[in-house]
Amino acid sequence: MFLGYVGAIAGGIGVAATLLALSKLFRFSLPKWMYPAAAGLGMLLLTIHIEYSWFGQVQDGLPPEIEVVETFDYSVFYQPWTFVFPRVNRFVAVDHATARLNPEVENIVLIDVLLMERLSPALKAVQFINCATGERLLTGDDMELDANGMPLDADWVAVGLDDALIRSVCTRHGTSAEAAEG
Q: What is the pTM of this model?
């Protein structure tokens, strides 16, 4: 965040300096208020660019085994342009390299889910995915497992087979009925 401020200030100074250099080069005079206004506009535009390019930069930096499955648009009153052009502020990704299948239990995948948000550290959530019923279960330190490695007394969350995370995990790891048919 600090580097964003430094970049915005440097961008503003750069715009004002460019305007000053052009006015000297072409020998025209501008009102004195124009230079700080140009610096402010430059800072605003650079900040907007940084905000809107965050998701693309992060996504481009992810390894191929990490797939973005859901994004969340962000609009806020003090950035009124975001109501017309919302920006991605956070997203959910799944790390397919961590997928673990249990040969004793069909249609269940244990996988790492990454929760990423701008200006926040990434969070990792290990989840059980039931590809037969479209349910998810967040694991915990106090979770008890049965002899087959399945959670005991678990509160599965039914999200449906059309959920982006369920669809991605089950299609890629071939445990759903749809994947078996195709």
A: 0.79
